[in-house]
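Posting this for the archive.
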Amino acid sequence: MKSNLKFFKKSKFLPVDRFFKNVLYDRKYGYYTTQKPFGEKGDFVTSPKISSLFSEMIGIWIVASWEAFGKPKNFNIVELGPGDGSLTNVLIKTFKNFPDFNSIKKIFLYEESKNLKKVQKKNISDRSIKWINNFSKIKKGPIIFFGNEFFDAIPIKQFKKINNSIFEKNYTYDKNFNIKEIFKKASPADVKIIKSYKTFKNLKFIEFPKLGLQELEKITKKISKLKGCILMIDYGYISPNNQNTLQSVMKHKKNKLLNNLGRADITAHVNFKLLTEFFRNRGLEIKNVSTQRNFLENIGINKRAEIIAKKMKFREQSDLFLRIKRLLDPNFMGHLFKVILAYNSNKNNFIGFK
């Protein structure tokens, strides 16, 4: 379709990450500019929309981490890719139950999409919240970065090893404007980076989140300087297996990857083994990667649900526990979603991890 050519922006060949960055974030035609992705009427539902208890557990985890850091007088929270602001709203409400913490905390929202910023500002009424494009204004720590389904939304590169040479997948189009993929010799700079990671050593097909790691580079520098941590929750895998994980979703159903460009969400599964290696290479400590189920249960989501349920009618109780099941059940999000914590701290007694 000729209409898809607008995502090439006068380039005949584009690497996978650059092409999908245009598809998702183009200021005029991009998915996050033109669509309403979240909720039942959107294309997908995230954990904060499934149950507010998810966000409440994150809030409790943040307060407990502040205590683990020694209750410092300066404390920053940065939510990465805050979606429609649902999680932030619950954090604000949860923090009010902890007056000492609530009086000193500062919340920052890190968002690339101008459209989503508008949605967030409409949904979040707390005027103490600040939106940021970089982390330069945060000069005193500690600092907690938190991202739920942040990393999967950052486009990835894809490579193939052929006879000890590395080739990068690109998208191009033919005379009928049909998009097709083509492999071109990878740049020496990318080859050098890929070969520096043990995670990729024995793989024939490699998914490399170059843009995502550039974001994490800024974050790890801030953590190293100010003390603090990053907590990330995302769907992904621990053992890479030459898999192509790019996927597209539209109206809660799978969509062919190159169909409905600009109108469907496109993501990739997160390689948690790579993230572990990345953080360790930068001097951060790592907790063993957990499943979402274990993490939330260790914080106490089931006990909290039981307390809330006592004040509910039967139908409300059924709805509550069905939602909790979606978050925890191994057949739903419980095992598919993983949790990683990287930190720079003298203490390591973070709740949620064993």
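The domain at 21-155+209-335 is CATH 3.40.50.12710 (Rossmann fold). The chain has a mean pLDDT of 94.
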